[in-house]
Amino acid sequence: MRKSHPVRRVVLATAATVSGVVLMLSLKPSSDPASAQAGGTIPQQTAAAQESAQGGAGAAAGGAVTGDVVQTQYGPVQVRITVSGNKITKAEAVQAPKGGTSDQKTALSIPKLTQDTLAKQSSQVDTVSGATYTSEGYKKALQSAIDKANAAAPAQPSAQPSQPAGGNTGAAAKTVTGAVSQTQYGPVQVRITVSGGKITNAEAVQAPKGGTSDQKTALSIPKLNQEAVAAGSADIDSVSGATYTSEGYKKSLQSALDQAGG
Fold first, then answer.
1. What is the DSSP string of 104-160?
2. What is the residue-wise DSSP string for 163-199?
């Protein structure tokens, strides 16, 4: 019995040692840092980072857009348009032929072209007689600006400035002629076309003429027409050097608006 007792102790010690090793091996994987990270923490952080990077990627609709420069026989033409509410509210030539007779042709044609742009809401504007090259250059430059505005706007088929203004094809257009306004240099009378509650075209059917009045009328009336369409009211700026014509224009325009129902 005394000889067997030490053997039993050895067997028991060996068994305890083996059990301890097995217990340690079974616990090690659960305490491994790599196993803790494998639970999906890193993928969650990556998704959050991607979401943050994608935020605010949409381009804002509207604003001023400048088209490409178009070279003509008499010089470059470049057009800038302002788009608001999917409508061209302003058009201007930032470059146009100048020098010699080009100055006069530009002064006579560009205001008419910009006015026609606001009225038609596209590059399908009428060529101005006597300024064919400038007109054609303007149309190409305008189309370039419209294309850029369409590209910058959100992908909405109805929100394209190149389409007719307002998009309200169901509303019938109404043309109204205002009362004649007598000025110091002659009568002024304005006719407007209203569609969808907006002025789509404005023109002076009467304006001062003869002598220096011809030049003042040629320079002021196109600008006043353009302002009337852009503002949609008679609250427009007077043209410098043509105060009497401008005031007469405003009065006749207001008369036409009153007839059209405001």
1. HHHHHHHHHHHHHHHHHSSS-PPPPTT-HHHHHHHHHHHHHHHHHHHHHS-S-TT--
2. SPTT--TTSPPEEEEPPPEEETTEEEEEEEEEETTEE
Q: Which amino acid does the sequence have at 189? A: Q
**Residue 32 β-bridge partners:** none
Q: Which residues pair with 257 in a beta bridge?
A: none
**How far is 86 from 150, CA to CA, in rounded Å?**
9
Amino acid at 261: G
- Dump pLDDT digits (tens) for 99-156: 999 999 999 999 999 999 999 898 889 999 989 999 999 999 999 999 888 887 665 4
Q: Which value, to the nearest 10 degrees, does the dihedral of the CA atoms of residues 97, 245, 194, 66 take?
A: 20
* 8 A C-beta contact, residue 256 and residue 190: yes
Q: How many helices (H) and strands (E) does the chain have?
A: 7, 8
Rounded to an integer, what distance in angstroms lies between the CA atom of residue 33 and that of residue 15? 31
pLDDT band at 174 (very low <50, low <70, confident <90, very high): confident
Residue 124's nearest CA partner among 99, 74, 71, 88 is 88
Say which residue the tokens 């010089």 belong to. Answer: 75
Buried b (16+ CB within 10 A) or exposed e, 200-219: bbbbbebbbeeeebeebbbb
Rg (CA), the chain: 38
